[in-house]
Design brief:
mainly alpha; about 85% helix
């Protein structure tokens, strides 16, 4: 009888661990997608600003450099949003890791503090340095056109 109870307990633990593993995979998948989206946004930002630089140099028209500020700000905000979401899902991942009961929830509602967290993401070292360099290069180009 004792062996049957032990076997049943081990089977339940294996099922729980399997469910937990799957739940963690779901959360990690979302985190990976946020990171990929952030990477793609950075690529688009560099490509678009470079194209506008080329147009400005080709036509010697400084309006293209001025226009380049708009997509840089938009990409900065969008990239910040993805970083903000990635951080929320990292908190979900940590929460799931410590749960006793697997519920397959990926809700970030309990961890979302709104604008202050998003502002921290928008002005994080990596985001500010990347977009700051782009804006600095725009200022330098404008000075020489």
């Amino acid at each position: 009888m004792k062996d049957n109870e032990d076997s049943l307990y081990e089977l339940q633990q294996l099922q729980k661990n399997s469910k937990m593993e799957k739940h963690l995979e779901f959360a990690q998948g979302v985190i990976n997608r946020m990171g990929q989206n952030s990477f793609l946004i950075k690529g688009w930002a560099v490509t678009l600003v470079s194209a506008l630089f080329a147009l400005a140099a080709n036509d010697t028209n400084p309006r293209f450099v001025i226009i380049a500020y708009f997509p840089v700000v938009v990409f900065w905000l969008l990239d910040s949003y993805y970083l903000y979401q990635e951080r929320l899902f990292r908190k979900v991942y940590d929460h799931v890791r410590l749960q006793l009961i697997v519920d397959y929830s990926l809700s970030t509602q309990n961890f979302d503090k709104g604008f202050p967290d998003w502002a921290k993401a928008a002005f994080s070292k990596t985001i500010v340095s990347f977009y700051g360099i782009i804006i600095l290069s725009l200022i330098i180009v404008m000075a020489f056109i």
